[in-house]
Every structure is written in C-alpha cells, then in structure tokens.
Design goal:
Structural class: mainly alpha
Number of helices: 5
Order of helices and strands: HHHHH
Number of domains: 2
Strand content: under 5%
Length: about 140
Amino acid sequence: MVGTIVAQLTRGVDPKTLEQMGLGAYYADHGSGVYPQAAAGFPFTAAVLAVKGDPVADLTEDLAAEQKARATYEHLIDMIDDPEVLDPLKFLRQREIVHFQRFGEALRDLQERMEDKKFFMNNMNCCPNNGCNGCN
C-alpha cells in the first residue's frame, strides 16, 4: 500500500524534478518503481527478519516489529496533510495495532501452556506392534 501511495504521488513527475528533490540516485537505480528500503536508503534484506527458533523469542520479536511499523506510520502521518495519503496510512497503523494485539494473545497463550505440567506416558502394550512410534 505504501508503494502504491509513493507511485501515485510521483506519477508524471519528470526525472529532473526528482533529481532536484534529492531522488536522482533512486530514480537512476529504480526508475519510477517502488523499491523496498528504509527512509535512509538501506534496502530491505532478510537480515531484518530475526528468527531464533524459540517461540517466546520469535513472538517477542514479532511484537517489537509491529510496534516499530506502527511508530513509522505515525511518523509518516505527522508529516502529511493530504487526506488521500493519510487515510491509507491510518488504516495501516491500525492494522499494526491489531497485529500487535494478536501476537500478544499468542504469546500469553504460549506462556500459559509452558506453565502446564507435562505428562509423558510410554505404554508398550498399546498396539500389536509393541513399541511402535505411532502409539507413543
């Protein structure tokens, strides 16, 4: 959605004007296409996806990512007064808030389950193939 907003705002802007606005290098590399990068110009890479393989750590990272996205949308909203741009940004900000709530619920559910006492049972007489993996 943000890419669409940028494309709409720059549609029909000639390369010289983009260069005067400080977007010359961007235009040279990407034309009028939207290239995923940070405001400072750092391109998106998989390095920003912090996955540990631990559900608590990963959900906590997801929570942080949603808050960072929300904060970014709020900063953009502070800089813009065009209602046609503001409305989609407000929608995206609200979506991040809902995602944060859902990840929080998932983390609470996980933490509750981790506190449950674990029971393990090995019944060697559970089926005709004593000790089969399907019964354990």
